[in-house]
Structures are given as C-alpha cells and as structure tokens.
Amino acid sequence: MLQIENLHKRFGGLTVMDGLNINVAEGETRCIIGPNGTGKTTLFNLITGKIKPDSGAIKIGGRNVVSRRVYEIARLGVSRKFQSPTIFGDLTVEDNLIIAATGRRNFTDLILSRRHGAESRIEEILEKLEFGEFRNDRSGDLSHGQRQWLEIGMVLLNEPDLILLDEPTAGMTLAETARTADLIRQVLHGKTTLVIEHDIAFVRRLEAPVTVLFRGKVMCEGSFEDIAEDEQVRRIYLGENP
Amino acid sequence: MEALVIQTLNGVSLASILILTSLGLAVIFGMLGVVNLAHGELFMLGAYAVATMSKLGLSPWWGLLVAPIVVGAIGMLIERTIIRRLYHRPIDTLLATWGVSIVIRQVVRLIYGTGHMSSTSLMVGSTTVFGYEYPTYRLFVILVTVLVVLLTFFLYFKTTFGLKIRLVISNRSMARALGINTSKTDMWAFGIASALGGLAGAIMSPLVTIDPEMGLAFLAKGFIVVIVGGIGSLYGVIAGGAVIGGGEAAISFLLRPVVAQIIIVLLAVVIIRVRPKGITG
Amino acid sequence: MINNVLYKQPKFWVLGILFLALCAFPQVTSGYQTSLLAKFLVFGIFALSLDLIWGYSGIVNFGHAIFFGAGAYAMGIALKYLPFAGATYFAVIFAILVPMLIGILLGYFLFYGRVGGVFFGVVTLALTGVVQSIIIISSDLTGGMNGLFDFAPPKLGIPGLIEFDLYSPTVAYYTVLAAAIGCYLLARYIVNSDFGRVIQAIREDEDRVEYLGYNVPFLKVVIFAIACGMAGFSGALYVPLGFISPDLLSIERSAVVLVWVAVGGRGTLIGAFVGTLAVSYMQTFLSDQFVVLWLLFIGVLAILVILIWPTGIVGFAKRYSLRSIFPFKQS
Ligand SMILES: Nc1ncnc2c1ncn2[C@@H]1O[C@H](COP(=O)(O)OP(=O)(O)OP(=O)(O)O)[C@@H](O)[C@H]1O
Ligand SMILES: [Mg+2]
User: Fold this and answer.
1) Which residue of B has its CA nearest to C257?
2) Under an 8 A CB cutoff, do B261 and C133 touch?
3) What's the ipTM?
4) Is C299–B92 a contact, with Cβ atoms under 8 angstroms apart?
5) Are A33 and A75 in contact (CB under 8 A)?
6) Which of A138, B37, B165, C24 is the least crowded, having the fewest Cβ atoms under 10 Å away?
7) Count: domains in chain B
C-alpha cells in the first residue's frame, strides 16, 4: 500500500530524513515511535505532499506521489489527523463531519449538496463517537479529547485507503487514551494505518507492529515486545519514558 | 549612451524611493504580522511636515527632522490604541488600519484643505555623473536611501534592540519568557517603522504633489514591492524595489507613465503567481 | 406545509409584513424616496456580494468597487453598442460576465499563487488604482473622466409588446427589489449548500481543507467569481439610478462597502442589507458639503466596529432575544 524508498530531506543544515525506507502492507496498522524531533511529523508532511523530499520515492498503491499536490494526494485516499486537533471550530460538529465526508466530491455535487449516502456514514460515526447530543454545537467548544475524536471521525469519513494519525492521544486523560486505543482498533480494523505515538501504554494496547525512527532512518522494526527488548531502543527512547 | 546613463539613474532613483517607502511596511509586517494600510498616510504626513515648515517660514530641512519624530509618535499612538488590540486578527487589523488611513486623510483635509500644498525644493541644480547632468536632489535621495537601509540593517543586526526584535519575530513566547517586554518592543518597532514612513514622505516631498491623496499611490506600490520581493524580509524590500523601480523606469522610457504603472501592477500579479514567495523567497 | 410554518413561526409573519411594506413603498412615498431606496437596495446587493467572500470565505477585498464599476461600465457600453430592442437583457448578462471574468483572472493568479488573507486585500487595493487609470485612459470607450452617458435607456419587458422604462423610479424600484430578493436567496442557497460549508471551513483553515481532498484555490476562485458577478449585477442595476463615472470604482466606495458589511454584521447575509440601509440613510442626513466629515465618520466607524462591535447589528440582534425577528441561522 505504502512504500517509502530512500527518502532524503534536509531543512537547511538539519537532516531529518536520511535514506528512510518503510513498507506498509495493505490493511496493516503500523505504529511509529521515536524521540521528539526525529522527524515523525515531517514524515507525514512528506507523505501528504505538504513538503517535497530532496530525493527518494513515496509510492501509494504503486504510484509515486512525490510531485503531487496536497489535495491530489488526499484524493488518492490519504487522510491525516494532525498532532494537535485541527478541526473547524466555528462550524458545528455535524458540519465538520459533512465537510470531511464530501472531500472527494466534484463541484456539482458540492453546490447541489449531493452526498451519495454519506448521511448514513455520518450518523454511524456520530453514534460511535457518542456525539449525538453535540451534533449542532460549535465544535470549538468541545473538550480537548472530544476534538481529538471528532478529528478521528473526520478522518474516517473521508473514505481513506491510508490513514495517518499523529499522536491521536496527545493531551488525553488515561481513560480517554484507553478509549481511543479501543476505538482505533475497532474502527480502523482492516484499514492501512500509520500511527505516531509517544504513549507507550497506548502503543502496547494497539498490538501493532512498531517502527522506531531515529536520526532520519528506521532503527528497527518488530512487535512491541521485540522493540521493548531491544537494548538500543531502550537507550535512546524508552529510557526517556519509563 | 546618454539615454542609457540617465535611464539607469532614473531606475536607481525610482528603486531608492520605493525601497525607502516600503522599508517601514516590511518591518511592521515581519515583526508584528500586521499589514498597515495607514502607512501611505504616514508617508503623506511626512511630506506635510516639510510643507508646514516652509509655510511657517522655517527651512524645509527642519521638516526632515520633524517628520520622523512626529510621525513616529503618531505611529506609536496608533499601536497603543488600536493595533495592539488586534494582534492575531490580521484581517481585522487590515480594516482597522484602513479606517485609520481614512481618518488621517480627512483630518489633514480639515486642517490643510483639500487642495495640494506647494512643495519646497531642498536642493536645486544638477551634478555631473559619468559626464552627464543629473538633478542633485535625486542623487541625494539615492544616498539617503543607502544610509537609511544601512542604518536599519545596523539596528536590526547589531544592536540589543535589534536582537530583541529578532527574538520576538522568531519566537514571541520564548522572548517573553526571557523577560523581554514584548509589548514595549512592539510599540517601538511600530514607532520606528512609522518614522521611516514619515522620513520617506519628507524626503519625497519636493518631487511629488503634496495632497491628502498622495499616500494611496505610494502605499499600493510599497506593498507590491514587499510582496514581489518576498514578504517580511529586509532583503526582499531591496530586491523588490530594484525590480519594480527598474522595471517602471524601463517601461516609462518606452510608454506613457500611466501605462507603465498599469503594466507594473499587472506584472507584479504575474510574478506572484510564478513565485508565490517573492523573488528572494 | 407552508401554512403550518406560517402559523408556528412568528418570523415568517415579520418577513411577510416586511415584504408587503417593501412592495407598498412606492405607492405611499415620493418618487425621490423610491429611487433613493432603490439605490440603497442596489448597494445592499453590492454589500451582499462582499459578505459572501469576506464574511463566509475570509477573502477580504479592498477593491470590491472595481467589480461594481466594471458592471456599470459593461452595462453602459453594451447599451451604447447594441442598438436592437431587448439589448438590456444582453447588457445585464454582459455586466455580470465581465466582472466575473476579471474576478476569475485575478483569482487564478492570486489564489493559485497562494496569495491569501491580508495580501489579497492589499493587491486588490493596488488594482483599484490600475483599473481606474485604465478606464480614464480608454476614454473612447468609457468617456474617460467625464463618465459614460450617451447610451440607450435600459428597458425591460417584451420588446415591441410591453416595455418598461427603467428610468421610471417605480419600475427601477420593483426591478431592484426583485433582484435583491433573488440575490439574497441565491446567496442563502450557496452558503447553506455543502459548497457553502466548505467555503466557511476555508475561512477558518484552508490548509486543513486541502488535506480533506478539496482543491482550495479552485473553490476560492469559484466563490470569488460568483461574488464578482453579483457585484457587477448590482453595478448594472445602478445604471438607471446614477451616473457612470470613474468615481464608481473609487477607493472610497470600496471602503464604504466594507463598512456597510461590518456594521450590518459579517457572515450573516441579511446584515449586508441592514448595514447598507442604516449607514446610507445616516448619510442622507448629512448634506453634501460635509463629505470630508462624512468620510471621517466612516473611518472612525470602521475602527470602532472592528474594535468593539465585531458582530455588527445583526450579530447583536441575534444575541439579544431578537432571534425571532432575524430568522437566519448564524454561519
Ligand atoms: N518546515 C520546517 N522547516 C525547518 N525545520 C523543520 C520544519 N519542519 C520540521 N522541522 C524540524 O525538523 C525536526 C523534526 O520535526 P518533527 O516535527 O518532524 O519531529 P517529530 O518527530 O514529529 O517530533 P514530536 O515528537 O515533538 O512531534 C525538528 O527539529 C523540527 O524543528
Ligand atoms: Mg510531531
């Protein structure tokens, strides 16, 4: 589904991607961890076309997308959740979901408000997130955790083939974190997903293969248990968050 | 050959004028993220300062001194009363400073009348450059621009105040954490930028018609210089001024000045499409 | 169903009475008052078009008068050069298409060049001067500084059968009223559609919208073109009510329309009409000799509205229990 080959990116003198190779199979959930400032968010910026790599290839479904614009890549089925919740705070919860659900429609559909059955999917998400009573509230007034969930809901409604989640539990309480992990496992089951996380408890709960990023390269890959055993990883990363 | 030398000098002097007028705009935008639509009126006030001095029977050179001080003070007042309430609301700032520009224009009309003021020449005569005669005052404008740009760069890169400003630009909350009174730096930066606008107006006063409308044309051009050069950078102003000023001089040589101005603005729009971050970006 | 709504919703009564009052207006007042209100309704349409881009899409246009003026000139020029009966209809279409085309060109260069937010406003400001100069120097076509006046009078109806002269205040008034209601409904439809939702999302965070798969510059060009066309249409309607001169494209007119929208309440549509009527009627109390003071007042008003009253009249009314009178949902 996603192949990243020999990716290089520098910001001035700072090398963030130094020959990165990652392969994510169709339907796989993959966790990406790494110390602060390793370039995890930058990796998402590269995949979504926000920034362009200096060299290397990013293939989505076999197609190299390096030269495509952000919205074109989104239309290929890449949907992204940002590190801090990024929703449209002045609009209602429902409007946020509608906008996400119609993202790949053409202009005629937009102006005629033709949703091609998106309504039922929106209802489904509202129910799953237990957002029914807030549907007409200003989304900016939701709590931090709710905004994170709303954004996850938007990502799902966007009909993605590849989902990128950047720290979906950042700033959440323990209970919220647990619920998010269950939610992701449940609703994202069978969808190709990349999750960036710092929270080790969450990573364990996700039961997904883990890729450790360090200094612009993949340091190691494996199950959570393998990674937790790895001496090197413990030193650079887990040591910081025991 | 003569045409070439004269045209080149015209280009350089036009570019200087543009750089002088745009510098303040770029400083305010780079530092505060504010687009000051009243900058043209600050420029206009600078020109009126010179005209007022000569009307009072004083040497117009006093105007060159008074303009930056008075206009700088007005700028600080605007920052204190209006701009500072609107940081983080860039589009609203635009409208509010637009309101300020209208107010300044109308107040000037009320005080000085709607007509134009007679401008006084600060220097007459011409100087020989590469064997050709060129108005001395235009050479003076070029010289002043070079000095002002050097001074601004010095202030920005070599003084503690400049260091504070650069710190605030790169990370406002960090600057605050380090004990910098950012509200005060904002005020002074706005004041200095306004003073630059006033000085530009004063220096330009002998070369233009001084009337309440004069700021508009300069504002529009100033912004085009800033955008074409690369938003928010001091080097961008110089590059933008050079391109727009040089371009205008070159086109004016071939076509009517009005047509040249139209072409320049349309050209700027095209440049923006091709190089969205400006020619230095 | 309609009946049900009428009984249950007092706001429909209010609207109904307002509508009847507007219809009866020419019957009970002088021709002067009628053309005055017609003119203000034209300005209301102009303001409405600005609210579509400013209030809903966050595109601030400091040169919106360009499109109003372009519409008026296009109308006048078409009336002058199309000698056949029924030319008015073509002239109006022309008056919509020309500003639209200018808007598309401008939008293409700026939105695709990622010049958004404040810098869009600045470039439109710079363009005002340019367009005014173009009109002044192409005096063969536009009449230059003197303005354009030697065109055939605009007429509506069916040529040869029944014709209405738009120079009659009553005809102009009813035409403008119908146009205002039509434009309002069109704008309401647009902002309530999914397209309208996306436009508002773009106002908040256009990068985020792009990640959802929307071609943001394209959508901005579309809404901008619609607004420019509507502004041009209002310019066309202005032709029988005023003079076509370069003054129509002035910086002042662009400033005043921003103030109308801000005073009425941005992002409310109806606020465009409320603000326009409130400020314009205020202006009629000041005699023409006080132009300087009037503009001073407009400047102060712009500052004050932004600083202390950003929601405008309609926002204020909505907040304080007048909800039922303004039957429109906040954006
Ligand atoms: N557009 C940019 N220009 C310059 N430097 C950048 C840019 N984006 C990111 N960086 C730098 O690249 C490095 C990697 O940043 P990135 O945000 O990808 O880290 P991260 O792994 O997501 O960290 P965190 O865990 O804190 O979210 C950082 O040092 C950052 O300052
Ligand atoms: Mg990150």
Assistant:
1) B95
2) yes
3) 0.89
4) no
5) no
6) C24
7) 1
